[in-house]
Amino acid sequence: MDGAALLLSAQLAALTTLVLAVVGLPLAWWLVVSRLRWKFLVEAVVALPLVLPPTVLGFYLLTGLGPRTWPGRLFEAAAGHPFPFSFTGLLVASVLYSLPFAVQPFAGALAGVDRRLIEASHALGVSRLATFFRVTLPLAWPGVLAGAVLTFAHTLGEFGVVLMVGGNIPGRTRTLSVAIFDHVEALEYGAAHRTAALLLATSFAVLALVYALQRRSFYRWNER
Amino acid sequence: MERALTFQVVRRFPGGPAIDARAAWPTGGAGVTVLFGPSGSGKTTVLRALAGLDRPDGGFVGFEGEVWFDHRGRTFLPPQRRRVGLLFQDYALFPHLSVRANVAYGLHRLPARARAARVAELAERLGIGELLDRRPGQLSGGQRQRVALARALAPAPRLLLLDEPLSALDAPTREALRGELRGLLERSGVPAVVVTHDRTEALALGDRLVVLVDGTVRQIGPVHQVFSAPADVEVARVVGTENVFPARLARREAGLLVVRAGDVELVAVDPGGVEDEAYACVRAEEVVLEPLADHPSSARNRLCGTVMARREEGPLVRLTIDCGLPLVALVTRASAERLGLVPGAAVAVVIKAPSVRLVPRRA
Question: What is the ipTM of this complex?
Answer without folding.
Answer: 0.78
